[in-house]
Design the sequence.
């Protein structure tokens, strides 16, 4: 072989080897060839239009690159699969609850961008409630607002009846007995769907849907924490102090507006349904009647395990051609004091949570300052608030409603929870540990 041919062959080997190395070595996302001038599409709901508009106003030089599309975010998992099949159409940014982010974070969907590569560590460390956005060592979303439970109570009624606000679930049950005996027809909550199930069972630490890790689910309905929650609900259904619908049924709204609700656990945003703004649907007036107390804890537990009902986040697609702008958008709308000033949502970003307190100071609905209670409750959100890759509310609602219809005790229907959830988990590829 001539020297010329040998040299050519040698260089060909080098070229092929370098290509193979390039194919087999994953590129650092921050070193990929992105386009800082590429437009981005932001999926929002109608309530998030002001957030989008505020960002555009604050960044007029980026306005032409931003497009908002109002969508039903519940369709995100199905649409991502469609986009994956056609290799086009992915939105760059999506407003969604962490439970939905989890549904598009598996290998089949492969949608979210790992934000640890893009958001400074000191900023990430200042968000509350990030468990639902954390998958292994990756962070797939930034929390927007939080919906941790607290205990709401009717202060004028509590004072009139001479009762003390409960601090434990045991005191809550004892109060229900006093209320049933001395003031029948008054209530301390309701039981009627999946969300009411979560409000009692997640608050007890019941492993009805406990993620051991991102691939394993524990369902142990014989756990004492499940049994104690069931006995509590059965006791209060028995003495008539729990109503029997979901939180937003017209019948329950009538209970509250008729001044028959003494107190109940509820999420942070629920104060807006009691009253105090133009959307008031429960209280007819705002006269400092809504008291806010710490979430209830079980006597033998060290601290409360706070459920959540909502609380959303923003996620970025790993398909985006302009992650710099996409991440800047979600970081700004979750951290900007200018945007959050006057907020009635409780921010997930700790440095701006005091803005919620400033707003609530002028709200005539509250009997006390809710801020310190919300702030503490936000740090007690249970790990059960990180949902598996499927809906929990529909199957739990079916179990609760069927039990009510058939007049069964809550304790007796606990095995049905496992029967409903286990097959859904198996379809999603989870290793399922069941004890029913």
Sequence:
């Amino acid at each position: 072989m001539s020297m010329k041919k040998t040299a050519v062959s040698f260089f060909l080997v080098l070229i092929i080897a370098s290509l193979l190395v390039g194919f087999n070595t994953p590129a650092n996302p921050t070193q990929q060839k992105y386009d800082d001038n590429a437009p981005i599409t932001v999926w929002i709901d109608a309530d998030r239009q002001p957030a989008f508009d505020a960002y555009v106003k604050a960044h007029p030089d980026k306005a032409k690159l931003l497009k908002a599309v109002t969508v039903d975010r519940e369709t995100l998992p199905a649409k991502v699969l469609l986009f994956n099949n056609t290799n086009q159409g992915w939105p760059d940014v999506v407003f969604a609850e962490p439970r939905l982010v989890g549904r598009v974070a598996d290998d089949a969907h492969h949608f979210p961008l790992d934000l640890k590569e893009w958001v400074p560590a000191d900023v990430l460390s200042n968000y509350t409630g990030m468990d639902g956005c954390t998958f292994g060592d990756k962070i797939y979303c930034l929390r927007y607002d939080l919906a941790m439970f607290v205990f709401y109570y009717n202060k004028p009624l509590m004072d009139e009846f001479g009762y003390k606000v409960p601090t434990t679930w045991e005191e809550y049950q004892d109060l229900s007995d006093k209320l049933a005996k001395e003031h029948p027809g008054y209530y301390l909550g309701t039981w009627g769907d999946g969300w009411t199930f979560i409000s009692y069972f997640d608050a007890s630490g019941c492993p009805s849907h406990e993620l051991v890790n991102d691939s394993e689910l524990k369902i142990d309905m014989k756990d004492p924490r499940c049994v104690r929650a069931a006995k509590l609900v059965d006791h209060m259904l028995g003495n008539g102090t729990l109503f029997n619908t979901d939180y937003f049924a017209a019948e329950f709204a009538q209970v509250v507006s008729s001044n028959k609700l003494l107190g109940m656990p509820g999420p942070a945003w629920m104060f807006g349904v009691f009253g105090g703004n133009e959307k008031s649907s429960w209280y007819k007036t705002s006269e400092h009647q809504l008291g806010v107390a710490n979430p209830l804890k079980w006597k033998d537990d060290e601290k409360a395990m706070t459920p959540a009902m909502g609380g959303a986040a923003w996620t970025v697609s790993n398909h985006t051609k302009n992650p710099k702008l996409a991440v800047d958008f979600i970081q700004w709308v979750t951290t900007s004091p200018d945007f959050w000033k006057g907020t009635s949502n409780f921010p997930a970003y700790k440095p701006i949570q005091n803005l919620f307190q400033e707003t609530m100071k002028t709200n005539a609905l509250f009997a006390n300052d809710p801020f310190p209670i919300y702030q503490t409750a936000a740090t007690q959100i249970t790990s059960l608030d990180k949902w598996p890759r499927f809906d929990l509310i529909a199957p739990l609602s079916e179990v609760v409603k069927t039990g009510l219809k058939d007049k069964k005790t809550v304790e007796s229907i606990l095995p049905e929870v496992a029967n409903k959830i286990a097959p859904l988990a198996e379809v999603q590829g989870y290793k399922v540990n069941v004890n029913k």
